[in-house]
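User: tokens in, sequence out, please.
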């Protein structure tokens, strides 16, 4: 029997490009979280992602372009993480506390640390700030919308919107508090008390 040579199946160029971009974005989160703003360059990210510098610059010609893509990617990751966890939340007397734990998760881990480095750099760089501000605003709207949905809040109630925003501000503060030390015990007490407060002041949607 004569063996018939086969042609290797090649991944479509568009799929390869999408996969390369994904690896670069994932690597950029790790770099920004571990190395900070000054250490996160297109060249370093390319090395971490295992792609050539030319391929990286095809997707992100400058570090500012990379950071813009990074913020958009972080917004998508956060939304996906919350939706995944939210699907497992159960109704019951401690549901609000569970929701708060999920929301605090927005401000913990590598994605939040990476975002923090970007915000710090943008605070002293006007050009970067102009790029980051609208993306950060979109991230804030996404977080607020998710909080409203998870807490089952009727935003038509006077003060409800501000209370939800205060909840997100609290979550961010608790996340910042964990950057330098393990604050697990205190966080649990604070969330338990705030959950009881929310159950009192936020009427649920009908």
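Assistant: Sequence out:
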């Amino acid at each position: 029997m004569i063996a018939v040579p086969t042609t290797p199946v090649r991944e479509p160029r568009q799929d390869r490009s999408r996969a390369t971009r994904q690896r670069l974005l994932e690597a950029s989160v790790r770099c920004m979280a571990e190395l900070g703003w000054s250490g996160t360059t297109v060249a370093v990210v390319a090395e971490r992602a295992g792609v050539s510098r030319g391929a990286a610059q095809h997707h992100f010609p400058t570090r500012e372009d990379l950071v813009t893509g990074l913020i958009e990617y972080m917004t998508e990751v956060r939304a996906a993480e919350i939706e995944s966890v939210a699907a497992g939340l159960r109704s019951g007397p401690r549901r609000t506390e569970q929701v708060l734990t999920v929301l605090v998760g927005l401000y913990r881990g590598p994605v939040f640390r990476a975002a923090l480095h970007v915000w710090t750099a943008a605070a002293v760089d006007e050009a970067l700030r102009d790029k980051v501000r609208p993306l950060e605003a979109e991230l804030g709207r996404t977080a607020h919308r998710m909080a409203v949905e998870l807490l089952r809040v009727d935003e038509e109630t006077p003060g409800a919107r501000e209370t939800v925003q205060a909840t997100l501000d609290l979550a961010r503060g608790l996340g910042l508090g964990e950057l330098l030390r393990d604050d697990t015990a205190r966080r649990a007490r604070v969330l338990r008390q705030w959950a009881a407060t929310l159950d009192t002041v936020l009427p649920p949607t009908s």
